[in-house]
Specification:
There is one protein chain. This protein is of the alpha/beta class and 505 residues long. 25% of the residues lie in helices and 15% in strands. The protein has an eight-stranded mixed β-sheet with strand order 6-5-7-1-8-9-2-10. Strands 4-12-13-14-15 form a five-stranded mixed β-sheet. Strand 16 and strand 17 form a beta hairpin. The longest helix has 31 residues.
Length: 505
């Protein structure tokens, strides 16, 4: 039997792609990720297919669009029998272990009503073994570590309150005790004794807010030296530009990015400081990721380990006066993706410009491990790109969607727009020349022309753009029709029994 190789699948939370190739590329120190890019294949036009964390990770791990798995919000259950990365790699003898979190809400049909697993969406994707409970709201091992070392912190997010009244005040914990350091320490301590053939899903909370970082990272970047946010109109004009934007800008701002500084205003100085802290958090993750790469090399495992590094979604970071990932702009979805298959070294250093999606990652891992890709999965394996090939039938667009309602506790969008939770959603189709954002609930569409003003102006109402709007809408509809739930789409019951046609790409 062929010796099984290791798999290291790393997901960073809320990291923008332009930290590695784009606006911030020359302003942020990420030496370890950049070194990996030179020793792997990276994908420049990679996008999350949905946000926020729970839905995004459901799509990553199941290879399914949100429109088919329908776990569309943090807290919307994922059907328990959905094939996913963990269930499938077990078929090859792997024990998929999780250091971190997957943010999957459990299927209530499988548990009694009073089960505590139904009281939080921060649960584990079925099939994974939780090696370390390291969640954003329920990171009990880390909090116990801090308490044992004498740190004094309150409940909940108080642990992330800065030690001071400035945006760049340091975290209350030292750098060696941060959530990023602790996760890495525990992972390295655990993996060191494991025999070859391990499967590790390692998920870093950072650079996800709250935006606070320990010394010396808190002063690592000079805010004045960083690129300014992308702003094309003043805040009031942005709020009036589309019905989606007004409620968002009324509710969310700089004050929501830092614990305990509720009086923060979205001044240019404050925004620049927050962007500097975000970059510092990314640099902290990079530093500890470098420790893992060094460990793999020191122990002779680097060339026996399939490495996949990505982010679950992006971050607006003050662009268009917005924060977080609940938006339609590219910054909320455009993320890094780096894949190193030591068996395919000829392509190392290559940067792929074809559009790829987060649903492609699990099919890629399965394919590289020689496993079948279930019919339920919407994504395609990226293995051809790793081999230096460019499939003739590869998609020329990417697709994303967002649900911004809540059926139990209506969101501010629902309240302001008078919409039901089933109507508060949109779909995005990104082509090379245009991006269409199609809203439900009767809200007007948005059409961006990349060859003129890009995301600076919505041209949906321009008479000259009508044919493009129609074409993009038809393509969006075709995409959704093509990717309806596929569990039995290629299976037929016949006189000879159940027969399944192979997937064809």
């Amino acid at each position: 039997m062929t010796k099984r190789r290791n798999v290291l699948f790393v997901v960073m939370d809320q990291m923008r792609a332009d930290l590695l190739h784009g606006a911030f590329a020359n302003h942020v120190d990420l030496p370890n990720l950049r070194a990996l890019m030179g020793d792997a294949v990276s994908f420049r036009r990679h996008y999350s297919v949905t946000n926020p964390c729970g839905p995004s990770r459901a799509s990553i791990l199941t290879g399914k669009y949100a429109m088919t798995h329908r776990s569309v919000r943090n807290g919307t259950p994922l059907p328990h029998d959905t094939p996913n990365l963990a269930t499938e790699v077990r078929k090859a003898g792997y024990l998929p272990q999780l250091w971190g979190y997957t943010d999957i809400a459990m299927d209530p049909r499988t548990l009694p009503a009073g089960d505590p697993m139904l009281r939080t969406y921060e649960q584990v994707m079925p099939g994974f073994v939780e090696a370390l409970e390291m969640r954003l709201e329920e990171s009990w091992p880390w909090r116990s570590h801090l308490a044992a070392k004498g740190y004094d912190f309150g409940d909940g997010y108080e642990i992330f309150r800065p030690k001071g009244d400035r945006v760049d005040s340091p975290a209350l914990y030292a750098a060696e005790d941060s959530d990023t350091a602790f996760l890495t320490d525990r992972f390295l301590a655990d993996i060191r004794a494991r025999p070859a053939g391990w499967f590790a899903h390692l998920t870093y909370i950072r650079p996800h807010p709250p935006l606070v970082v320990p010394e010396p990272f808190n002063t690592m970047y000079d805010p004045a030296s960083l690129p300014s946010p992308r702003i094309v109109r003043d805040r009031a004009s942005q709020a009036a530009s589309h019905p989606f934007d007004g409620p968002l800008l009324e509710q969310k701002g700089a004050k929501d990015q830092v614990v305990g500084l509720s009086g923060l205003k979205d001044t240019p100085e404050t925004v620049a400081q927050l962007r500097a802290i975000y970059l510092a958090l990314a640099s902290e993750v990079d530093q500890h990721f470098g420790r893992i790469i060094a460990f793999l090399k020191e122990t002779g495992q680097f060339d026996n380990t399939l490495i996949v590094v990505m982010a679950d979604h992006g971050e607006m970071l003050g662009d268009h006066h917005s924060w977080g990932k609940m938006h339609y702009y590219d910054a909320a979805y455009h993320t890094p993706l780096i894949i190193r298959d030591p068996a395919l070294k000829a392509g190392f250093g290559r940067e792929i410009d074809a559009p790829t999606e987060s649903v492609d990652v699990t099919p890629t891992i399965l394919g590289l491990l020689g496993l079948d890709i279930p019919d339920t999965m919407d994504g395609r394996s990226l293995a051809p790109f790793l081999r230096g090939e460019a499939p003739d039938d590869w998609r020329d667009y990417s697709y994303s969607e967002l649900d911004f309602g809540d059926p139990v506790d209506p969101t501010f969008w629902q309240t302001r727009l008078g919409l039901d939770s089933d109507q508060t959603n949109f779909a995005i189709l990104r082509g090379r020349k245009h991006t269409l954002v199609h809203f439900n609930g009767g809200l007007p569409p948005i059409l961006f022309d990349h060859e003129s003003e890009g995301e600076a102006r919505n041209v949906a109402n321009d008479p000259a753009a009508s044919p493009i709007l129609l074409e993009m809408t038809q393509r969006l509809l075709n995409h959704r029709l093509t990717h309806s739930e596929g569990r039995f789409a290629r299976t037929m019951i016949t006189a000879e029994g159940a027969r399944r046609a192979p997937r064809v790409f």
